[in-house]
Request: fold
Amino acid sequence: MKSIASAPGKVILVGEHFVVAGKPAIAMAVNLRARATVETVEGDRITIRSKELKIEESFSPESINTRSPLYPVYIAADLARRHISLEEGLDITITSELPPAAGMGSSAAVSVATAAAVIALRKKINRGIVSKIAFEAEKIVHGKPSGIDNTISTYGGAILYVKGKGFTRINLNLKDVALILADTGVPRSTGEMVAKVRKLKARYGSVLDPVYESAEILACEVAKALEMGDIKTIGELMNINHGLLSAIGVSTLELEQLVYMARNAGALGAKLTGAGGGGLIVALCHKKSLPNVEDALKKFSKRVYIANISKRGVIIEHKTFL
Amino acid sequence: MKSIASAPGKVILVGEHFVVAGKPAIAMAVNLRARATVETVEGDRITIRSKELKIEESFSPESINTRSPLYPVYIAADLARRHISLEEGLDITITSELPPAAGMGSSAAVSVATAAAVIALRKKINRGIVSKIAFEAEKIVHGKPSGIDNTISTYGGAILYVKGKGFTRINLNLKDVALILADTGVPRSTGEMVAKVRKLKARYGSVLDPVYESAEILACEVAKALEMGDIKTIGELMNINHGLLSAIGVSTLELEQLVYMARNAGALGAKLTGAGGGGLIVALCHKKSLPNVEDALKKFSKRVYIANISKRGVIIEHKTFL
Reply:
């Protein structure tokens, strides 16, 4: 038996960092996908190879390398295998269009695609179970994941997330726009940036509390604008959100350069996305201005991704019973 | 009779734009000065020459060119002449270390120096009167001036200004720091930027109101830190203030580049100053890191000014009775 599943990555549209203090964040699925091809094999081994990481590793009950970068994928595959009560081994090939460690939910997309592909060998997939299994794998990758990445990759579309209160689905109503992402080439450390912001907020609480309040109202306004298809408002609010992120100290020269290059080339809005201190920017573009913005960003960034907004989460692309 | 007076320029340390909505701004005198050399001459003409503008113009009761860029200086000189009941003519030479039209209060410094030099021909200068006369000249230059520029140029030091509520003096207690300013080379239009911010605020009031609140608390915290000599706090609050200005849409690629170059080279804090959309950045530097920051900025800006904070306002530098 063989099955192939794919799952989208995500981008944080607004609210990163502020989410740590209980403010809402909006995550959106983008149509850069991870893909898992799964075949049953004799024995009980699960062999996983990643085309992008150029590694292959075999896991058996007697020999589990918990330090392997593929260990979380093994966990997803093994939990899914138990779910369908499969006793055979698995051969899994992973490919991904998502840049790794860029805050685009690459690891979750891989786990979601893997869990779905394994389950599809015997059952119709249940999204709740797929997301839950991927969440277990995410715990290995991130320690204390928010659950945003596995949720958005499983269901697609966009969600409003509030820490401790879970997810609200946003009914996207967007036409003729795409996201464009560009990498500063500067590696980011989420933990370091979160600690830096915590320190600044502890020192200047009275000044920054209203900034957090602004971020909260802003995220709710963006959610409304996404449902109404008001792309001008989304863009302008992204720009404001970038300023708030600059105020809490997570922007850099390289991020600002990409942000303003995108805006100056005609993007509706542009901001850093994710932890900051490096990493990526995201710009919202009308499709007619995409080539212009892409050209501008490519002059400065080696990795520019056009990312259509993906209403579809995980999908089973192929299934055969041999 | 001859006298020479000089008066300092200013920089807005924090609070620009937010001041329009009634929030406090802090202005600080910097030791880049305008200088007026005044001599009495026969007749009733007032002849003014500006070394920097390379123009000279004569004003007499019968012939007043109200369109001359020197007309505001004439108004300051003439009001000061009336104040001391002088009936002779005047020959006035203006020099200035301040970049014109850069938001550094160059026109006010020229008017303050001129009024003081004229009054000094016969009387001990009264700062209240000097400032008032310069304010009349400023009305010609700016239409509806806030009064910040003539006040800070007359008295020196730093002030906290709230629209409609006037000025509060800040007792500066700073050691071993200087300001460094760098020009983007992009001309700014204060009117345009104020209109842009007004429009954004009208559209996104609920999101931006807390940003204005943050700016208000921030300015008060900066005032305290200036009195306590807490330069680390001043720098960090300048950085936060820059983010708030980014949020209201008045930053640009060129401003961000200079801001981050200054910060990366060791400035305690750096932000755009004044209207934005172009114009200058200001950085607070410990004196030991000044050369480093200056070098970094000079790679990108043709006009970099080291500006010591000036506790002294207008001064009479020279006076002779021939």
User: Anything to note?
Assistant: Chain B is about 40% helix and 25% strand. The interface with chain A takes residues 200, 203-204, 206-211, 213-214, 217-218, 221, 236-237, 239-249, 251-253, 256-257, 260-261, 264 of chain B (CB under 8 Å). The longest helix of chain B spans residues 205-228.
